[in-house]
Amino acid sequence: MSSVRYAALEEVMQRKAKGLNVNNGKVSEFYGSNVFNRVAMRAHLTEEAYESVVNAMNHGHRIERDIADQVAMAMKDWALAKGATHYTHWFQPLTGATAEKHDAFFTPTSDGRAIEQFEGSLLVQQEPDASSFPNGGIRNTFEARGYTAWDPSSPAFIIGTTLCIPTVFISYTGEALDYKMPLLKALDVIDKAATDVCQYFDKNITKVRATLGWEQEYFLVDAGLYNARPDLMMSGRTLLGQMPAKGQQLDDHYFGSIPERALAFMQELEFESLKLGIPIKTRHNEVAPNQFECAPVYEEADVAVDHNLLLMDLMEKIARKHDFRVLFHEKPFAGINGSGKHNNWSLGTNTGVNLLSPGKNPKTNLRFLTFFVNTIKAIADNPDILRASIASATNDHRLGGNEAPPAIISVFIGSQLSEMLDKLEASIKAGKMTPEAKTELKLSIGKIPQLLLDNTDRNRTSPFAFTGNKFEFRAVGSTANCSSAMIAINTIVADQLAKFKVAVDERIKKGDKKDEALLKELQVLIKESKKIRFEGNGYGEEWVKEAKKRGLNNFLDTPSALKVMTSKEYKKLFSKLDILSEREIDARYEVELENYILKLQIEARVLGDLCNTSVIPAAIAYQNIVLENLRGMKEVFGSASDKMTNSQKELLAYVNKHLQGVYSKVNEMVEERKKANAVQDTAKKADAYCHKVKPLFEEIKYHADRLERVIDDELWKLPKLRELLFSK
Ligand code: ADP
Ligand code: MG
């Protein structure tokens, strides 16, 4: 019996780690060599053009047309010298991936030659055939056109032989159709709000940048096995599959050395990443077999987002070269650890200060406390906004599973900082503060750094944890574009900081000294944000009950998590700060729901196909083997065989029961799908997929997995989980 599965398994056995196509020199010699960064710009641009681009990068200033022409020319020369033949506008549509459309540099001339050409107009704006990107109805109502516009704040780069120009993607009526536009706006808003608050502490602070350090988790699966699993290919996860005898109980992968083939992949990935200026620094095995993680040094949030998307793109390409396929899905294997993308977030000033890093003295610690407490308050007031920002069909499988952060948003800060906040809350008195009270307070505030050094407790079960000098948003999914989470965090914190500034100014106007005003206002925030602080086990049932008592929501699926986007408060907040208009929010809500529906629709189809064309035929073929055996037994032993073949008959009945289970549940699912597809309203349709179609996946899987348990291994065509997880 030769099946695709067996052929793939044979292939895997022959595999060797690939020879390496990397430079063994010092990283400093090739770092950023494929980026049109400041060094390259200095070398290729006039002083005037250089200043103009740097101003655009730092302050968002406009670039004049003649300068754009100069920049385009310089970019082209730089890119051609590096072997580039094409250019593309690179953007981040709401599908979650990145998009590009390549155009060649050459232009034919009238006398039959060709010249390489690239003008400012091509750099600044392009019209991709955009009708196929999700737009939530924005483009349909006006005209079916959108355009990409150069974003000079991220540098251009070369991948392969293509010059990639980072752009934003907007409709002709000016609405954002991507993740980048609102992210840039949110970063601008937090800059202003945080810089204003910083004036209480240091007048030299003129700019605050939100920083992001992501940690990307992923699985590597052999390409041959992957190709024999249509569900992995189409939906990114295994829709069927019996848990292997050995899972991750032994934790031997986590602590083990990185397998050779995977290591070769990582080395090439790192080399290519570093050339693109992606500061990849760490690599290691993760908890599940064949699961890994990599993380860079943190960067300004928009650059970090670009770099994460670029990295994911590189990973796909390089994995293929090493006969792997990379799985970004949050839960590719039921019952095995999923993948996340922790978003480490902080705020850094132009003076080099991390605002979430405890200082050395009471003054700098008051600054720390201000940003720390305001962040907690922002989450306390807007947990549903954070939850919506990470909602997706794929992340639904991970949130609330017993190894991932729960779907309930809470903040973990560690017992010592908790005590510190409780103490502050209790010890600040209304009215004028006595000098003794102030000294006492300052002393306790001054203790923070020392306390933190001793504070090693780390709560892995919290979706939003303070980890010493940054917050770590752990509930972000591994497939996500981090922009979504970054837009949410920076928006709600900016809004909170602005409110804080107004309140403190008010107190100062009424006669409080600055420090006193700050402390008193912080006390109010501490009090008002208590419900969001949780130090216990986030995976426990207890927390679900406790959270309910506290009035915290526990949205277990995407349709319910996204609902907040239709609320007045959500629209008011985002439109007030000019990050997203109501129309853009409506469109995004629609797009998110559509993405959700499409993903489930694909899964449903693939699952039906697999069952009908692979699982059921295998079951029948196996039954026929048993039947053949029964007939043979009867031929030899006559009526005596009746008693002798009890096990065969039991087996036959068992297979038949689950075969019928698969068959009937698939039919039921098809019916439910038809009903769901007929629903017009997108939100209701998503609900139908969520509550009527999806639950049947589990039932089908149950029966199919029972069949996998007993059916002759040679008849089973789909690579088994143990093969996907343990082949190296
Ligand atoms: P771990 O959380 O695994 O213990 P680290 O604390 O060293 O590891 O940091 C993990 C991630 O946090 C890295 O990607 C790093 O770049 C990022 N990080 C560190 N400091 C900051 C910061 N100030 N702002 C944003 N991200 C940061
Ligand atoms: Mg971490």
UniProtKB/TrEMBL annotation:
EC number of this enzyme: 6.3.1.2
Sequence ranges assigned to domain GS beta-grasp in this UniProt record: 85-174
EC class name: ligase
Record GO biological process: glutamine biosynthetic process
Domain GS catalytic: 179-615
Organism superkingdom: Bacteria
Keywords: Ligase
GO molecular function: glutamine synthetase activity
Pfam families named in the record: Gln-synt_C (PF00120), Gln-synt_C-ter (PF18318), GSIII_N (PF12437)
Listed InterPro entries: Gln-synt_C, Gln_synt_N, Gln_synth/guanido_kin_cat_dom, Gln_synth_cat_dom, Gln_synth_gly_rich_site, GS_Type-3, GSIII_N
Family membership noted in the UniProt record: Belongs to the glutamine synthetase family.
PANTHER family on file: GLUTAMINE SYNTHETASE, TYPE-3 GLUTAMINE SYNTHETASE
Protein name: Glutamine synthetase
Species: Parvicella tangerina
